[in-house]
Amino acid sequence: MKITDLVKQSSKPFISIEIIPPRKGVKLETMFAELEALMRHKPAFMSVTSHAHEWSIEKVDGRDVERMKHKRLDTNAICIAAQARFGVEPTPHIICRGFTKDETEDVLLTLNFHGIENILALRGDGPPTRGGSADAFANERAADLVEQIQLMNQGVYLDPIENADKTDFCIGVAGYPEKHFEAPDMKTDLANLHRKVHAGAHFIITQMFFDNEAFYRFRDEASKIGINVPIIPGIKPLYKREHLDVLPKIFHIKIPQTVRDSIERFSNPDDVYKASIEASVAQCKDLLAHGVPGIHFYSMSVAKPTSDVLKGIKS
């Protein structure tokens, strides 16, 4: 089911999850064992992160040879396997960085062949591609990627194909309640989000945040400039004291002092965990009271914290 149809048809807010593909050398069953616990909560869909190829130059018989490496298992294979095993609606991340438009088109055609309807279109982190002429054939921004997917939805491919079949992807993009760290201000960041929606994005999932007031302001300002697609808040359950320092540095977000105080007063790991989960439950209950269509949980492929938050919401 398309996520836009899910939003329209759901009589109550849904939950969804995001997972990270395991590193090479880790069995898929190891990740699926974690997913089993999350699937008991019947997530409406599951997004799977994607990671750019890594390129290096290595000496082979005295020659410089370009080598492409993958550190994690394939995103799309995980989506297809999880769809077959759990019946969950998969939503793979498709990123600009590290991929040419031709590679993107091939991946999208494979996903379409397997009946995957939802895509999360992102710029991605890291260098654009591997440098050189490849950059000219890569999408630079998420809005460019959305445009390519929409053209495929119209049956328009990179090379003209007569009577080409159309794809039918529902396209999601990222939103930033506290602005993207590269944007000079919120107005500029919202204008960029508007470009992605104008290019054809159907829904928005936000970056993680811990200040609900920032989300409500973001949602209101987005509406004022004509962004009228569903906005789904993305939540990262807290469960470690280290999160209070690490998450703001990595994701360029703020954790309210009240949340910090509720967790930092404890030193015992069990007490920290309990206080952290309680803070996440309170955040989610407030979001639900403010009419969000659903909540997207950044599980990081660790089941227990997200499961405990979901149990707390229902209690």
TrEMBL record:
<keyword id="KW-0285">Flavoprotein</keyword>
<keyword id="KW-0560">Oxidoreductase</keyword>
<dbReference type="GO" id="GO:0035999">
    <property type="term" value="P:tetrahydrofolate interconversion"/>
</dbReference>
<dbReference type="InterPro" id="IPR003171">
    <property type="entry name" value="Mehydrof_redctse-like"/>
</dbReference>
<dbReference type="GO" id="GO:0009086">
    <property type="term" value="P:methionine biosynthetic process"/>
</dbReference>
<dbReference type="GO" id="GO:0106312">
    <property type="term" value="F:methylenetetrahydrofolate reductase (NADH) activity"/>
</dbReference>
<dbReference type="InterPro" id="IPR029041">
    <property type="entry name" value="FAD-linked_oxidoreductase-like"/>
</dbReference>
<protein>
    <recommendedName>
        <fullName>Methylenetetrahydrofolate reductase</fullName>
    </recommendedName>
</protein>
<dbReference type="GO" id="GO:0005829">
    <property type="term" value="C:cytosol"/>
</dbReference>
<comment type="similarity">
    <text>Belongs to the methylenetetrahydrofolate reductase family.</text>
</comment>
<dbReference type="Pfam" id="PF02219">
    <property type="entry name" value="MTHFR"/>
</dbReference>
<keyword id="KW-0274">FAD</keyword>
<dbReference type="GO" id="GO:0071949">
    <property type="term" value="F:FAD binding"/>
</dbReference>
<comment type="pathway">
    <text>One-carbon metabolism; tetrahydrofolate interconversion.</text>
</comment>
